[in-house]
UniProtKB/TrEMBL annotation:
This is HAD family hydrolase. It comes from the Bacteria. Pfam families: Hydrolase, PfkB. Keywords: Hydrolase, Kinase, Transferase. PROSITE patterns: PFKB_KINASES_2. Residues 47-320 form the Carbohydrate kinase PfkB domain. It comes from Dyadobacter subterraneus. PANTHER family: BIFUNCTIONAL PROTEIN HLDE. One of its GO terms (molecular function) is hydrolase activity.
Amino acid sequence: MDQKRIENILEKISTVKIAVYGDYCLDSYWIIDERGSEISIETGLKTQAVSSHYYTPGGAGNVVANLSALNPAKIKVIGAIGNDIFGRELDAQLQALGADTSSLFIQQENFNTYSYLKRLIDGQEEPRIDFGIFNERSTETDEKILDAIENALIEYDAVIFNQQVTGSINNESFIERANALFEKYSDKIVMLDSRHFNDRFKNTHLKANDREIASLSGVQVSPDEVIPAGDVKKYGKAVFDKTNKPVFVTSGERGILAFDENGIYKIHGLQLKTKLDTVGAGDTTISALTLCLAAGIPADEAAEFANLAAAVTVQKLYTTGTATGEEILKISNEPDYIYNADLAENERQAVYVPETEFELCAPEVMERLGHIRYAVFDHDGTISSMRQGWEEIMEPVMMKSILGTQYETIDSGTFHKVQEKVKDFIHKTTGIQTIFQMEGLVNLVREFGYVPENEILDKFQYKEIYNDGLMEMVNKRMQKLEAGELSQSDFIMKGAVDFLYQLKERGVTMYLASGTDAEDVRHEAEMLGYADLFDGGIYGALRDYTKFSKKMIIEKIIKDNNLRGNELAVFGDGPDEIREGRRAGGVSVGITSNELQRFGHNPAKRPRLVRAGAQLLIPDFSQHKKLISLLFQENVDYAS
C-alpha cells in the first residue's frame, strides 16, 4: 500500500463516527526502584519504593485510545464503571481523548472499575494485581447499555463490540437483546471481538485471532501449538460462509487473513528488529479495521492498513500503545514483510526441485525463470568465507559494550540474558551494513543501562572497535594466502566461481554488493581472483553510509536498464539482499551456506532467508550446472 493511498484513507477516516461498547479498564503502571526500599517499622516487612507511576485506558479504553489517535469525527463510549477513584480517572482520560462518555454508566453496587496494576522491577513485570474480578453487572445497567448501543446503531457509522474480561457479561438476557438489535440493524457495521462469546453473537463482522477462529470451527488448540496457515485459512472461510459477514483473522507475525464476498486476502506480517510488546496490538487492529470499513475502504486494504498500525503499536514497550497516522505513514515506507512463516519454522515442509538440493520456497517463481540478464551477489557467506566467524567477533564486542565495567563481575544469569538478546540481534541483522548494526548496539547499551549515558560511544566508535577485531582475523588469513600456506579455494564457496563464469558466458552483468566497507570488499575479491567477473561493479559500505545500500544498488540496476523484475536475480545468505530482491520483483536465491566447510547446508540460515522472501534456497554452488539449467530453463523439465 503506497503512502498516497494511506493519506487518502486517513482523510476518509476523519469523517467517521464510531461507538465502542466493551469492558473499560484502567491499566496502572508502577515502576519499582529497589534502591528506595526499606524495612517498615510497623510491619517489619521490606517495602517496595515506587519511583514513578502512570495510568492509561485499558480494555475497551485502549480501543478508544487507538481510535482517538486516528482522529475520527466522533467517538462514543458505552459501558460501565464503579463509583471509585479508578473509574473517575478512567472517565477523565477517555474525555481527554475526545470521547463522549455520557454512556459510561456508574453502577453503585457490586461493581469496581476494572483495573490492572502492573509493577515493573528492572524492566520485568511482577505478578499483576487485578480489581473488578468479582463484578456483577445489574440488569438495570444492562438496559442502559443496550439503549445506548441502539442509539449508536442509529446515529453512528459503526459500533465496536469488545469483550475481554471473564464474567463481564453475566446476564443471558443481555446477549439475547444485543442479538435482537444486531438483527434489526443488520445493515450497520458491528465489529465483534469477544474473548468468550464469539459464538453467541450474530449479524456481526468478526475480528479474531487464529486460536479463536479454530475454536469457532470446533477445533481446540493448546496454548503452545502453532496452527498451520492453511488451517487458519480453512477455519476463517468456514466462519465467513456461515455468517456472510467480513471476517479478519490475526496471526501475530504471520499477519492478517481477511475474508469477504470478494475472496480471501493474505496480508503478510512485518519483520521488526526492535524489542516487541504485543499487548494491545489487537485493540489497534480492531480500531483501524473498523474505521476503514466505516469509511468505505475494501476489506483487503482495511486489513493492510490495520497490519501496519499494529506493527507500530507492538514496538512501544511497557504501555498499551496506539498508532497515529503519521506513524503508520512512516512504517509503510517500504516495510519488511515476513514470507512463509510456517515454512520457515518447519523444514519438514520443504519441497525440492527434483534431482537437486534446491528448495523451492515459492513455486510460482518457476513461471518467472528464463529471463535473467543482471545478477547481484552478496559477498561474505555467499561467495567468500574470508570473514567466516565474524559473529564470534561481534558478539563479545557487543557484550563488553553493553555491560561496561561489569562485564567480568556480573552474575551469570544476567550475563546470559544479555547474551541471548545480543545473539538474537545479530541473527536478525545479518547482512545489513555494519554501521546499522552498531546503531542498534547504541540502543542496546542505552536500553540495558549498565553504562552511564556520558560514557556511551557513538555508532562510528563502536564500529571501529568491531572492525579492529575483525580485521585482525581477516589479515591473518590474508597473510596465509599471500604466503601460499592457504589457497584461494580455501576461502571460496564450493562451485561459486564456476557459477560466475557460466553466468558471464550467458551475458549476465554481475554486481558484488556487501555490507562490508567498500575498499575491503574490493581487496578481498581481488585477492581471491574473481573481482574482474563483476563487470557491473563492486560495492560496499561507505563512510557516509546513507549513500550505499543493497537496496540502492538494486534500484539503480532496474532503473538504468529498464528491467522487468524477473530479469534480475539476487543471491545471498543474509535476509537484507533477499528481502530487497523480493521487494524489487526479482528472483531471490538464498544461500544456506556452511561457511566453515564451504559446502553444505547450514540449517540456522534457512528460517531467516525463507522469512525474508527467498523463492529458492541452495546450500552452495556445487550443483552449478543444474542451477544454471533451472534459472535459464535450458533443456530441462523441472515441473514433473
